[in-house]
Design a protein that fits this description.
Elements: H1 4-7, H2 15-27, E1 31-36, H3 44-64, E2 68-72, H4 83-99, E3 104-106, H5 114-127, E4 132-137, H6 143-150, E5 156-160, H7 175-192, E6 197-200, H8 204-217, E7 221-226, H9 231-239, E8 243-250, H10 254-264, H11 266-277
Parallel strand pairs: 1-2, 1-8, 2-3, 3-4, 4-5, 5-6, 6-7, 7-8
Helix pairs in contact: 3-4, 4-5, 7-8, 10-11
EC number: 1.5.5.2
Keywords: FAD, Flavoprotein, Nucleotide-binding, Oxidoreductase, Proline metabolism
Catalytic activity: L-proline + a quinone = (S)-1-pyrroline-5-carboxylate + a quinol + H(+)
Length: 279
Amino acid sequence: MIPPIARRFVAGESVPEALDHARTANEDGVAVILNLLGEHYDDAADARADADTYLQLLDDIADSGLDACVSVKPSQIGMDVSTDLFEEHYREIVARADELDAFVWCDMEDADTTDATLDAFESIAADYPWSVGQCIQSNLRRTADDLDRLVDVPGKIRLVKGAYDEPSSIAYTDKARVDEAYRDDLRYLFDQRDRGVAVGSHDPAMISLADRLAREHGADYEVQMLMGVREDAQRDLAAQGVDVFQYAPYGDKWLSYFYRRVRERKENLTFAARAVLGQ
């Protein structure tokens, strides 16, 4: 049984529970991105099992008629076994989504995996245009160059500030500097794209900036937030006509999910506590 404090952030342990959560969110005008909990598999069989689960989940979503999609983690579908296995599974999942007129996001993990993840995204998006999206982290010093490389790729880009505690040699570590980079990256995306921009942020200032930029450039965009965090704001934005997606993890690995988030960065614990308290 998932304890109440965790259930706020996890959409149950089973697929039916996750779909029920998506249905409830849809009633409030909020779409859902479902992520099966699991990461850092070093056994190819584990990666294959989760890839198969995503294939079935895409079928289940299509059959349900829900406004939902999926998001995979590279290390969940084979990255820690080999980059080839990761891309093989990633491509297979996106191919199924393309058949179903569905959508697949790929999360970004630690900086050691960035190149392989972006290589796979670029290749798969070329074969299955606008059926796939990639998360990009503004705290990395390389991100401006990565966005320039990806700006014409036919896939969505989810811009986040970044949750991994990377060294200062490759990442901005000061909050104000990360915010500055995020604003610069948003401006670049809206200046260069008229579709496929996803604003992955709970920061009201960044969401307001995105709205202003979208209006200036006549561009489409969406806002993405985590389940359990600022859900009132999610519903309010949806009511205003903004495309809002809630990232909702599910599965029986919820304990390791919270452990990893806290271990990666101490600020994550404070962030979760503030979300629970509604601050």
